[in-house]
Amino acid sequence: MSPRPANDAKRLGAILIAGAVAGLGASYVASRKRPERWTDAGLIDWNTVRRMAVQVSQTDQAPVRNRAVAREQYTEMVRRSEPLIARYLRVELPEPIQRIVVMDRREWLDANITNFTGLFQFIEELYQRNANPKTVGQSVAAGVNRRMMSAQVGVLLGVLARKVLGQYDLSLLAPEPTGGALYFVEPNIDRIQRNLDLDAHDFRLWIALHETTHAYEFEAYPWVREHFNSLLRRYFDTVNEQLQGFKGGIGPILSRLLENMGKGQHWMEAIQTPTQRAIFNELQALMSLVEGYSNHIMNAIGKQVLPNFEEIERRIEERKGARPLAEQLFNRITGMDLKMAQYQQGQQFVDTVVQRRGIDFATKAWQRAENLPTMDEIRAPEQWIRRMEA
Predict the structure, then answer these.
(1) What HEC string does 274-292 produce?
(2) Cα separation, 111 vs 61, whole angstroms
(3) Is the dihedral of CA 266, 188, 81, 170 positive or negative?
(4) Can you give the pTM of this predicted structure?
(5) Beta partners for 87?
(6) What is the predicted pLDDT for the residue at 8?
(7) How far apart are CA 102 and CA 100, in angstroms?
(8) What is the mean pLDDT of each run of 10 residues along the chain (390 residues)?
(9) pLDDT digits over 191-249, tens only?
(10) H/E segment holding residue 196
(11) Closest CA to 153 of 333, 372, 369
(12) Cα 45 to chain center, whole Å?
């Protein structure tokens, strides 16, 4: 009997799991130095990814105007934000943020594509060992799979490049992590500001406050970065083990998908093993806290320093509520809807804790890993409060 069905099942299983990793990577994407060359073989053709992403992002239609002036303005906004955040949180950065970068969409893609090569590296290695085509038919199938996966990742990144406004670069999983950097994708910021008819300065300061807060979460509490990296490594290790033990094709994955989707779970969670889901929940809880904390601080400080704060919030919320069906579907497929849920759940958690116990009590979450809230506690802040008071 030909070995092709089993091998193709392994390959399809790898693609399904890789899709989940892609969704996760889209949510937690971070940049590293771009490699000098990308491999010409494997599950993903990264040159194709970049070409597709550049095409989808329409980067040539969105240049940065007056880059030097824009960088000077963002630097001033970050410098203004730093003491305001420090005073509110009663914590200082080891040193002021040095890397403040104004980007166009192509530059954002260049800064982020390398992260995806790292996220997929372990799947690539396993693919090379366990799914080498033995026949002409298998070679054709492998080529089709490679083109499909490359196109999917390219479209994903291209769409993200048109949406992202700011990013705090953690250099997650980088061999030699450096201090974080703030990225401002000016063409996207300019487009939203003009479309919503917002005050140009206030809208950019609103974004700078949010992104600068991330620096305090990871730089003022250095253990958080390594804890984040540890969770990512543990998650990817479980995927690696799952693929290495792939004996029954995609049956186990499909069974979990059908069973758990019936329980109302997101598809990314539905295909996970219990161990993967436990680690994923830890990641979700941490990211919910990260984003919710930033939103809380942006709101608390923004109300004091931005005359148009309420108007910015109102128009941004109206825009979110008017997302077209195609965008909603994209968010669901890529897992970005989970990311958006993090903002809402995390902010509700921090707002509730601060309202009941104050910001100093909420800051207990950053003192050590054991203090981080679980997803259950994110959804029910009083549970975390009781645990911290015990």
Answers:
(1) HHHHHHHHHHHHHHHHHHH
(2) 19
(3) positive
(4) 0.78
(5) none
(6) 41
(7) 7
(8) 39 48 47 41 81 91 90 96 95 92 94 74 62 49 68 86 89 63 94 94 95 92 90 79 54 58 61 82 91 92 92 88 68 63 87 97 96 96 97
(9) 999 999 999 999 999 999 999 999 999 999 989 988 998 888 888 777 766 655 554 45
(10) none
(11) 333
(12) 22
Length in residues, the chain: 390
CB crowding 180-210: b at 16 or more within 10 Å, else e: bbbbbbbbbbbebbeeeebeeebbbbbbbbb
Dihedral-angle region of residue 42 (phi above 0 means left; psi in -120 to 50 means alpha; beta otherwise): left
Q: Note the helical H segments in the chain.
A: 4-27, 46-57, 67-89, 105-130, 136-163, 186-195, 200-219, 223-244, 251-261, 267-270, 274-305, 309-321, 325-334, 336-357, 359-362, 375-379, 381-389
User: How many C-beta atoms surround the C-beta of residue 88 within 10 A?
Assistant: 16
Tokens read off for 26: 């889209």
